[in-house]
Model the fold of this input.
Amino acid sequence: MAELARALESRQVTAALVTDRCLGAIAERNPSLNAFIAVFADQARAQALEADAGMAAGSPRGPLHGVPISLKDLVDVAGTPTTAASRVREGHRAAHDATVVRRLRAAGAVLIGKTNLHEFALGTTNEDSAFGPVRHPLDPARSPGGSSGGSAVSVVAGMAFASIGTDTGGSIRIPSAACGLVGLKPAMGEIPVDGVVPLSTTLDHVGPMCRSVEDAQMLYDVLRGTWEGATRVAWPKREDAPTARGIRLGVLREYFMSLLDPEVAASFERACARLRNAGVELEDVRIPHAAHIPSIYLHIVLSEAAAYHATALDQRGDEYTPNVRHRLEMGRYILAEDYVRALRGRDLLRREVDAALSGRDGLLLPTLPVPATPLGADTVRVGTADEPVRNITLRLTQLFNLSGHPAISVPCGSTADGLPVGAQIVGALSRTPALLETARALEPYLGPGTSR
Amino acid sequence: MTITIWLEHALADAASRGLPALRPLLETLARAASALRDADWNPDATGRVASSRPPDAR
Done:
């Protein structure tokens, strides 16, 4: 995407051409992959022509000028429905752009369409959607991960140059890892979530899904609002990655490594060896209360989701997909005293992540313990046991929604079958730009994704 | 309310609302709530320090 931005700026290509190519890829591949819920073909072509005219006149809007971007269909675009992949939202039409959409427009992005997701973002496989499941581009019998699965597929399949997803327990990082992309969950509260359908108000994050850390840096700057009201565009420069030598990372072991697919574990350990050879200092670290993460997460996410959905559950419960309805109903039985215990546990976990980061540039762990899971599977085999798909896919990401620390998934090789593996780097609170610099330094050593 | 009593009430309520499929989910929730109640970070009005019993760490 950064390369495209530079090519657009130097007028080697036109926004109209790249937008048409994306629309062509959608026409060709979306019928089988089901990544999009809505395609804004006419509007995108008009935005692209306007972008080309602006560039010809010497008045680019921002660093995404003319770049086709897709949006998870949880994000409001004025005048269009936000379906959240649910029949419950039938008849909705957004009155205003979400703040992140306003910022994308200010940076010059061409909005190509809205992508499919797990209904209301409450799931990690994209199977429970009023619009049907999204399919993995490398193996249509598998899930691309979720809940921002349509976003990931839109980028991998060339239907968009990047996508905006949301992440409440891993919904940006999980599909990014499963599909060989870079996915950033910024720090809690950095990117506005107004105009984004909530799942869990204290866990929700918005962030980019793209092909490189450099792309993530560009999009992060845009989503932070850097280009709103800017009068001059600073185009992304071609810069060498910062050196990896001397970077200090804590590698999370114990709980975080105790349930890993053998091929994921091998990919991760090979990446660690490459990092050591490059002069990165790796030390094992631990989160003492890690075993409590799932219980704490479950109580917070389901309580907050149930509060948002209670009226709709009572009035239109049959219109949810059964699995999502049942999980939301589960949240209505949580006692306030247990929610408060979970909040106290969350504070403790945040302090333990801070302690693990102390004196280090980041934490390192796999993103997803297993490769992309088969569609229709309730469990997957990990080692000698069958594990519930939902539990295993959230296992390594949900901690950083609880703690609020920024976390990025970067491709980290692939399995023998060619399915991508992702590594996660976690940074200090309020230091997302530093995390991105660290990730850019490490990216060449972690290993390529299949899409790059 | 103990977890046992809570679970009995929750299962009965779910059944009365025509949602028997909630049973396994509520049983999962009961295990998660038990883990939270047993955790060592909970203050106790008696002043005693809670004894920690970590959940299955797999």
Observations:
- The two ends of chain B are 29 Å apart (CA to CA).
